[in-house]
Amino acid sequence: MLVTLIFLVGVSSSLALDNGLALTPPMGWLTWERFRCITDCKKYPNECISENLIKRTADLMVNEGYLDAGYEYLGIDDCWLEKERGPDGRMVPDKERFPNGMKAVADYIHSKGLKFGMYEDYGNLTCAGYPGVLGNERLDIQTFVDWEIDYLKLDGCYINPTAMDAGYPAFGKMLNETGRQILYSCSWPAYQEDAKMLPDYASIAEHCNMWRNWDDIEDSWASLTKIMNWFGDNQDRLAQHAGPGHWNDPDMLLIGNFGLTEDQARVQMAVWSILAAPLLMSVDLATIKPEFKAILLNKDIIAVNQDPLGKQGLRVWKKTERGVRSRLEIWNRKLYDGTYAVAFVSQRDDGIPYAASFTADEMQLPKGEYQVQDLYKDEGVRQWNSEDHFEVRVNPSGVKFYKFIPRASSDAIKSDSGFVSDAIVNVLMNNS
Ligand SMILES: *[C@@H]1O[C@H](CO)[C@@H](O)[C@H](O)[C@H]1NC(C)=O
Ligand SMILES: *[C@@H]1O[C@H](CO)[C@@H](O)[C@H](O)[C@H]1NC(C)=O
After folding, report:
1. Which of 305, 324, 349 is the C-terminal boundary of a domain?
2. 11, 65, 88, 228: which has the fewest C-beta neighbours closer than 10 Å?
3. What mean pLDDT is reported for the chain?
4. Do 290 and 345 fall into the same domain?
5. Catalytic one among 155, 249, 300, 307?
6. Taking every annotated instance into account, which residue ranges of this chain make up the domain Alpha galactosidase A C-terminal (predicted)?
7. In the predicted model, is pLDDT for residue 417 greater than 80?
């Protein structure tokens, strides 16, 4: 069994950017969605993009169990730079907010067992107007290597999207030539989609470990559903390009911030896991409420996201009512052990839990008998035979997220709880 699985992982990764990274969707924390470009540390000492914020977050990631759960990258997004390069042409971190320079930040992060993510932009300027890499690519890559970064998000402001098909691969080649393993996150298709070009996803998957496909996520249910709808509507041209080493990125997790209820936060965690999306938190880990922390740390859902087969799931069914699109929808992801993760998402917001029942065909499950486990553990384990309808009751703007374990497969692999044992997954990760 293990041998076969490792073989599968090996085969898929040969189609990817071959830097040995991101064999499962990257997990970590990134400044942007929650902390944006807050640079006034006098007014907002706990929120400004600074060494303090990064060190505090590093401590919390380790002490509060996020690193153990798999969140290993700690990334700074835009607004870390001085507006001018140094006399030697090098990028200079903001002198007040990063008084000890970036290598010191990297050392701190590494001392905690975390990995260090940085941000730059392929154009003349970053999106927030700081110096971009254009014209200084080699020097900037050398600077990043000197700082020992492990992850680079390369944004695409202030550059023509038509230049990206050649530019992003060329930059990736220079990264590779340094010999340092740096996860390469590209914003290449997001700008091309925005310009109504058709991105060459086959090429993108060959040159990037992950890529932002579309709009920035904002802290609201409206933004979350807009992004979910876009990924569902475009899945036929996106999903095939995801796999070990190369992932579509619907953007950061909003979970724990201002805009989502607990039910809505559960929706994002479920759908991002079905989509095999990078799980990048962007939240103040010092003040996050326990119910949101529990969602981020749900290990059975993280296991779905990190499934070693790396096959992106699909929106397999949706219902339109009175001309309103997609009020209830089913998302299904096939996992390496022959089980299925199935999310029933309600975009209704009209007051009461919505009861519905579905056939195996509607859920796109093979006929047979299943043991069904609620991944949020509100319900006990059910037995279900595909001759019957499967009944669900979903909260408004909420989700029910189940694992369907075929009888034969559950007899063969189940641990005591019936959940895939962490040990098997860990062995796979370490060997692939
Ligand atoms: C560079 O690319 C080669 C060929 O794809 C690969 O084998 C190697 O691991 C890469 N090195 C790094 C540091 O990414
Ligand atoms: C970048 O800046 C240079 C120098 O000001 C300018 O010549 C060039 O057109 C700019 N490129 C883009 C893509 O804006």
Report:
1. 305
2. 88
3. 92
4. no
5. 155
6. 310-398
7. no
Give me the pLDDT at residue 322, please: 57
Active site (annotated) includes residue 216: yes
Over residues 334-357, the mean pLDDT reads: 92
Question: CB of 132 closer than 6 A to ligand 2?
Answer: no
User: Could you give the number of structural domains in the chain?
Assistant: 2
Q: What is the CATH number of the domain that holds 408?
A: 2.60.40.1180
Percent of the chain with pLDDT over 90: 86
Q: Give Cα separations from 319 to 131, 329, 345, 397 (angstroms).
A: 47, 6, 11, 14
Judged against a pLDDT cut of 70, whether residue 247 lies above it is answered with: yes
- Write the burial class of residue 421 (CB in 10 Å: 0-12 exposed, 13-18 middle, 19+ buried): middle
What is the SS3 assignment for the chain? CHHHHHHHHHHHHCCCCCCCCCCCCCEEEECHHHHCCCCCCCCCCCCCCCHHHHHHHHHHHHHCCHHHHCCCEEECCCCCECCCCCCCCCCCECCCCCCCHHHHHHHHHHHCCCEEEEEEECCCECCCCCECCCCCHHHHHHHHHHCCCCEEEEECCCCCHHHHHHHHHHHHHHHHHCCCCCEEEECHHHHHHHCCCCCCHHHHHHHCCEEECCCCCCCCHHHHHHHHHHHHHCHHHHHHHCECCEEEECCCECCCCCCCCHHHHHHHHHHHHHCCCCEEECCCCCCCCHHHHHHHCCHHHHHHHCCCCCCCCEEEEEEEECCEEEEEEEEEEECCCCCEEEEEEECCCCCCCEEEEECHHHHCCCCCEEEEEECCCCCCCEEEECCCCEEEEECCCCEEEEEEEEHHHHHHHCCCCCCCCHHHHHHHHHHC
352-403 confidence digits (pLDDT tens): 888 889 999 999 999 999 999 999 999 999 999 999 999 999 999 999 999 9
Does the Cβ of 14 fall within 6 Å of ligand 1? no
- Are 45 and 14 contained in the same domain? yes
* Alpha carbon distance 89, 110 (integer Å): 27
Q: Atom 3 in ligand 1: which residue has the minimum CA distance? A: 18
